[in-house]
Amino acid sequence: MTFNRRQILAAAAALACCAGVGAAHAAGAYPSKPIMVIVSYPPGGETDAIARLFADKLGERLKSTVIVENKGGAGGTVGNAYVGRAAPDGYTLLFTPNPFTTAPMVLGLAPAQSYDVLNGFEPVIETATQPLVLVANPKTGFKSIKDMIDAVRAGKTVSYASPGAGSPMHVIAEWLNREAKVSIQHVPYRGVGPSVTDVVAGHVDTAWVTLGPVTQYFAAGRLVPLAIGDAKRSPLTPKVPTLVEAGYKDIVVGAWNGFFAPKGTPAEVVKLLNTHLNAILKDAEVVEKLATYGAFPHGGAPSELADANAREYEVVGGIIQSLGIKAQ
Question: Where is the signal peptide (predicted)?
Answer without folding.
Answer: 1-26
